[in-house]
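During the no-cost extension, the postdoctoral fellow (Dr. R.K.) reprocessed legacy sequence entries with the updated structure-token encoder. One reprocessed record is reproduced below for audit purposes.
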Amino acid sequence: QVHVVESGGGLVQAGGSLRLSCVAAGVSFRLSSVSWYRQAQGKERERVASIGSGGSSNVADSVSGRFTISRDIAKNTVFLQMNALKPEDTGVYFCKVVTTMKTYWGQGTQVTVSS
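Re-encoded structure tokens follow.
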């Protein structure tokens, strides 16, 4: 059974940094693509960044130059490094893992950026 868990969220002032982690039990990130999504209150969920099974990555234009996605295959963990945070980055951040068979979501971690 696959279990996806996000961590690292919290409250930070504008301009600060956070690093989110996504760990998945029961699936290998060597064979999966992983994406970070976020959802602000009252808004639709939006993709923030993705990293493919081969390691190629990309980020949304809204976070380009501030957010970086990376992974540690040995720890089966994907990271989202968030710098220069803005109040509009506030939301629940979710990790999405896509395998050849199925898509899995974590429960999310709250990020709050105060002005």
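The mean pLDDT is 96. Residues 31 and 93 are 22 Å apart (CA to CA). The remaining legacy entries will be reprocessed before the final report is submitted.
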